[in-house]
Amino acid sequence: MTDVAPAPEATGRTAGLRGTPLRPVRVPLGGGRTARIWLKLEAQQPFGSIKARTAEALLDHLEAAGALRPGRRVVESTSGNLGIALAGLCAARGYRCTLIVEPTTPGSSIDRMTAYGAEVVTVAEVPGGRTVDARLDAVRQILRRDGDAVWTNQYESPANPRVHTTRTAAELVRDAPRGRFDAVAVAVSTGGTLAGVAEYFRDRLPDARIIAVDAVGSAALGGAPADRPFKLAGFGSGRVSGFVRPCHFDHRALLRDEDAAAACARIRRRTGISLGGSAGAAVLAATVHAARDPALRELACVCPDSGEKYAELTDGGDGGDGVPGEPPGAPAEISAALALLEGVCPDEAHDVPPAD
Ligand SMILES: Cc1ncc(COP(=O)(O)O)c(C=O)c1O
């Protein structure tokens, strides 16, 4: 069940990026208070995710530096979304493409990469939450072996955060209700989206609270990585972000993957909007902070993709019956926020359609 149109395929050298819709939902908080959460639906980008922006920016950056010419091989480590967009753009631009993924990468994402002609290598899960290190080792091996291979390096390229400053955040602020948000919640993996959005918000909306959303067991915002038996793709990382600095966020929300999945199930059931796990995590974190702080009434969430390709969200997060179970052991404040999401509803009167 979703009211979100399928993302169009890109067809040319450029991804055909577009301004994505900003869809508000209301969350009753009790005591007559309501938070409005504005969902920036990046599943509407070509290739179905926010990573269309990143892929195009990474390739443009290398081309501007003269590091790519047709026939060379683009290599990248990806949890899925970046790989789909890179594979499509490499096909359009005449580059070979090798993508290193891991067992949590959805099969349908791998199918899309290979349909674009990319070679896909899946590394084995590494204990201790360090599978990303195995992916990066595989990238480095290819770079050593193949003199034509070029790494887009989403973990360090300045093009990654920059595109979220110049486009993602600029669109959010342009479309904001009365030109402002009280807070914005962004989930992290490489941290490129958060760092880029934060740069823009600090400059243009300095009063907005920035909520960095990470997974329990992730090291993206610091701390040691740990096993995550139920791990949502694209949420958190086994390595610390190379982009996020302490000034980029006011609050750090650490959420369990299963709680983010439960949030997705509630939002889908109550509003018809299908969100990927990292987007569900952002909405859950926004709800926690809105419940804590009455000053937070208009909140934005970057929603990197939809839930369609994630089996764990379409049939695991809610037992397949559309009725989400309460994940056992959630901290009290998270349980309370999940309970509040049982009341989430669409606010179609204020929908902001996509604008380029
Ligand atoms: C679904 C999803 N959400 C969030 C992110 C995180 O984005 P970033 O790497 O900019 O932190 C990714 C990155 O791959 C993703 O695929």
Topology:
Elements (H helix, E strand, L loop, with lengths): L21 E9 L2 E9 L9 H14 L8 E5 L3 H13 L2 E6 L5 H9 L3 E4 L8 H15 L3 E3 L7 H17 L7 E5 L4 H13 L4 E7 L35 E5 L1 H15 L5 H16 L5 E6 L7 H6 L15 H10 L3 E2 L10
Parallel strand pairs: 2-10, 3-4, 3-6, 4-5, 7-8, 7-10, 8-9
Antiparallel strand pairs: 1-2, 1-11
Bound molecules: pyridoxal-5'-phosphate.
The site of pyridoxal-5'-phosphate has 18 residues, from α2 and α6.
Characterise this structure.
The protein is α/β, with parallel strands linked by helices and 356 residues long. The chain has helices at 51-64, 81-93, 107-115, 131-145, 159-175, 192-204, 257-271, 277-292, 311-316, 332-341; strands spanning 22-30, 33-41, 73-77, 96-101, 119-122, 149-151, 183-187, 209-215, 251-255, 298-303, 345-346. Helix 1 (51-64) packs across helix 2 (81-93), helix 5 (159-175) packs across helix 6 and helix 8 crosses helix 10. The radius of gyration is 19 Å and the shape is globular. Mean pLDDT is 92; it is low at 1-5 and 315-323. The protein binds pyridoxal-5'-phosphate. Pyridoxal-5'-phosphate binds next to helix 2 and helix 6. Its cofactor is pyridoxal 5'-phosphate. Keywords: Pyridoxal phosphate, Transferase.
